[in-house]
Amino acid sequence: MSTLYEQLADALAQRIHEGNLQPGERLPSVRQACAQAQVSPATVFQAYDLLETRGLIEARPRSGFYVRRTPQALRQPALPATARRESTPVAISELVFEVLSSTRDKEVVPLGSAFPSPTLFPLERLARDGARAMRQLAPLALTTELTTGNARLREAVRARCVRHGLRVSAQEPVITNGAMEALNLSLQAVTQPGDVVAVEAPTFYAALQALERLHLRAVEVPTDPQLGVDPDALAEVLQRHHVAACWLMPNFQNPLGALMPHARKQAVMRTLQQAGTPVVEDDVYGELHHGSERPLPLKAFDTEGQVLYCSSFSKCLAPGYRVGWALPGRHSHAVQKLKMMSSLATSVPSQLALAEYLEEGGYDRHLRQLRKTLADSLHQLRTAVLKHFPKGTRVSRPAGGYFLWVQLPDGVDTLALHRQALAQGISTAPGALFSADQRFRSALRLNGGHPHDARVLAAVKVLGRLAGKT
Predict the structure, then answer these.
(1) Which residue ranges does the record assign to the HTH gntR-type domain (predicted)?
(2) How many structural domains compose the chain?
């Protein structure tokens, strides 16, 4: 349930998007807004602060709040890609290894990293909770809960998923070593070597690595930077190819940041159900929305048990703990068997620390602060990119998560740009990482999950200058 200030902010945001409040127009004063909405001044200030964080309004000293005057560049969002019609083998791991090795150096500005800043998470409390829970653990639980995971954590995950609109039985959750294990096990459960898997264009490089490891072929589905996968294009792909499975990220897709609207998710799910195609759903960013409500995953519309839903705590609570989970639907038995044959178990101390933390409360409070911080950092990064990158640059406008998809003018090679920037202590994630045939050479993904301080701003200026010369 959204708070009063979030409801007020959403109502004003809708008026801005619909053009009822024009760029440069002054918003009602705090006193006027209180009278109109019948709320307290504190609620109005919180609502205006949220709108400012989203980049929709700006405060002017001794004058009030105004709808932000949108620069022309902001009216040029990232464009959807043209997907390849044919399936292709995948060979991306060597390039991924080369690029991601650069993010391990703490002296490098981590614009190419896949993780937010570790300073944003309650790691000390998690360590205390884990130590206390281990002291209280019955020794027998160390062996009886190996494959599916700790019972307390499984129930906490199940209860939270039910709150988010999912139908989950007590037996369904499988605790894994991060979301990547959940995703890999799920994909393996529904495919055989040589099968074709439908993926977004562009798509998360780890999805491509999973396909490469399992000797699968990729076929791309056109994906809009704002709206996600096109249901009609997905239907065409399913008709044209014998697709064994889909790998989709409907909420704040990596690398685009796209959020698939509710109606589009329903349409996608109808298409998948008609075809009988299982879908591996990656929802690791769903908790990091910048609005008032968590977006529903595809799993919420699944009536046949064909969605293998995967998520983790790595991006929103405990990076490095490597604790994720799968809700594999009718494929639960297959996923559990694969888990037993591969890693067998997930670290018990990590599971207990998270179970203790979730049971004690405070997770939602942490998430609210984290969302606000990430939304603010991402907005500042986007503003800096639009200011300092070459004319003609297009930038995505995510409503959640912490990634920007930046499309530079044709002719700019972002892999070459990455190597030049790395020589100056700046990492990026070039677009070639995000397709099976290393396309998107003029695009890159930037991480806005770190404080937008002077170091980050200087790095953006350097990238913009290099991009203008590449």
Answers:
(1) 2-70
(2) 3
